[in-house]
Specification:
Oligomer: single chain
Structural class: mainly alpha
Order of helices and strands: HHH
Strand content: under 5%
Number of strands: 0
């Protein structure tokens, strides 16, 4: 009967130890999984931030190109206005010369002077419009560059937070791994001591009881009662 009790007690200790081990291992696995998930999220944050920043920079380059193009277009149109003015003055000079009018005074001079003024106004407007358009494109480029920086900063901040979470979970996993060994060993040791103590108590009781047997196979009443209780 005692053998069965010992086997049952040992089985109980082993089951308890296994339960402790399985629980700690599950905690360790969960912590490692969470750490891996956090690291993956950190890498995704960095990748997504870089991709968004690259797109924003590409947009900024496009805006800068348009700004330069607007200025070039304005310069070309201003030069064309100069050329148109020269052709107009030449045409007017030829017409007035053919008419016998003096070019340096009177109506011819006033007309040609007005043509020159109008041409200068046109040039000013063209250049001003080009500058305004280039400035607008430049503002868009600046905003896109700022957005790119914002993406990178946000990605780095998110990745840092995710990696802090990963580090915390790794720490929890290490603690669970240590607890798995310590708690399992402690459970086995405590259980073994309890089983040993029970066995020793039984063995001592059995030895004491055997020593009280009388020659006729009976027990000494008083001593047997003391030994039993």
């Amino acid at each position: 009967m005692m053998t069965a009790m010992l086997i049952t007690a040992i089985a109980g200790v082993l089951l308890s130890a296994y339960g402790m081990y399985a629980q700690s291992e599950a905690q360790e696995d969960a912590a490692e999984f969470n750490a891996m998930a956090a690291e993956n999220q950190a890498q995704w944050d960095e990748y997504n931030a870089k991709r968004s920043a690259d797109l924003a920079r590409n947009q900024a380059e496009y805006y800068e190109y348009n700004a330069a193009l607007a200025k070039e277009q304005a310069d070309r149109e201003a030069k064309k206005a100069d050329e148109d003015l020269k052709r107009l003055i030449s045409s007017q000079t030829a017409e007035y010369g053919a008419s016998g009018l003096l070019i340096g005074s009177g109506t011819p001079l006033a007309v040609m002077a007005d043509s020159a003024v109008q041409a200068e106004y046109l040039k000013y407007d063209l250049l001003r419009e080009g500058e305004i358009e280039a400035w607008n494109w430049g503002e868009r480029a600046y905003t896109a560059e700022q957005q790119a920086e914002s993406y990178l900063i946000g990605g780095q901040a998110g990745a840092s937070t995710d990696r802090a979470v990963a580090a915390l979970n790794m720490m929890k996993g290490e603690q669970a791994g240590t607890a798995k060994k310590v708690n399992t060993g402690s459970t086995i040791l405590t259980g073994a001591l309890d089983v040993g103590a029970t066995y020793n108590k039984y063995k001592k009781k059995k030895t004491t009881t055997s020593s009280l047997l009388l020659d006729d196979g009976g027990y000494a009443p008083d001593v047997a009662a003391q030994a039993f209780w």
